[in-house]
Specification:
Length: 297
């Protein structure tokens, strides 16, 4: 079991977020998805059920940020489960398949969530911001986003705006962008902005380039089967082996740019026990031996 809340996502902030999202809460007896906002606005909807619900092979066309308002959600990838509590934003990536269990709160008898879809226009706007190209830790280590007072406040503004159809779509999108700007440095939020299966795979591999990765491990982290991952990488004119090699060589180049790493240390950090094997791979990737890059760094 994984996906525990961070220390920063304390109970007070969680309760504050749930209070700010009350503007989007569905009325008594209302179930199913209900869209909010004016036509053409960023897609925000509430979802509510009154009995435990299991959905197999759920896959989103657009990535989304979800907050559970009441109850809990379980996301299953094979036999690995993430249990997501109420009051903490988390990321649902596009193009990956999950088995989902929505569990109503034992006191209220309701499972309810608020979902904000992040469409291509919103993703493009965030990618243009400074710093988005920088390397980030892998979202595979957790999909929950740490709460801050500013993020709670931004959610409150967004909820108030999209709950009132008199507000136009431009203002609603601006409010969603405010949320995305606040979460964009979170490791989990990288799942929102990854443009392709290759980029998502690179994010996972970069988190631990020295790990003895198998294609099955990477596929599990991405919520895919191994054969599906192989096919999707092939469509992008690459393979698991090529992607792992490129990721390791890029990481090695970054490490050797720092005087803190020797060639041997860099080789071990990216998964090579043989310095000569590492040197051959490095020269093929960078056009120079690792010792020369370290000297120039």
């Amino acid at each position: 079991m994984s996906g525990r809340a961070s220390a920063g996502s304390d109970q007070g902030l969680r309760q504050a977020l749930l209070a700010r999202l009350s503007a989007l809460s569905l009325g008594a007896g209302v179930s199913g998805p209900v869209a909010h906002g004016a036509p053409g606005a960023a897609r925000v909807f509430s979802y509510c059920v009154f009995a435990r619900e299991q959905i197999r092979r759920q896959q989103l066309d657009q990535p989304a940020i979800v907050v559970i308002v009441s109850g809990t959600k379980e996301l299953w990838t094979g036999d690995v489960c993430e249990r997501l509590p109420a009051g903490i934003p988390f990321v649902m990536p596009a193009g990956t398949s999950f088995d989902i269990v929505n569990i109503p709160d034992s006191r209220t008898g309701r499972y309810e969530s608020v979902c904000m879809n992040v469409d291509a226009e919103l993703r493009g706007a965030i990618r243009q911001l400074p710093g988005m190209a920088a390397e980030q830790p892998s979202p595979a280590r957790g999909r929950m986003i740490e709460l801050t007072p500013d993020l709670v406040e931004a959610y409150g503004h967004a909820a108030t705006t999209v709950a009132d159809p008199r507000h136009g779509p431009a203002l609603a999108r601006h409010r969603i962008l405010e949320i995305l700007m606040l979460v964009r440095s979170s490791p989990a939020a990288r799942l929102l902005f990854a443009a392709s299966i290759v980029e998502r795979a690179e994010l996972v591999l970069r988190s631990d380039p020295g790990r003895a990765w198998r294609v099955e491990d990477l596929a599990r982290a991405l919520g895919l089967g191994a054969s599906t991952l192989r096919r999707r990488l092939a469509r992008e004119a690459t393979s698991f082996r090529d992607l792992l090699l490129a990721t390791r060589m890029a990481a090695a180049g970054n490490l050797l740019g720092s005087p803190a790493y020797s060639v041997t240390q860099a080789a071990e950090a990216v998964g090579y026990s043989s310095r000569s094997h590492f040197a051959r791979r490095f020269r093929a990737a960078h056009g120079m031996p690792p010792s020369k890059m370290r000297a120039s760094g």
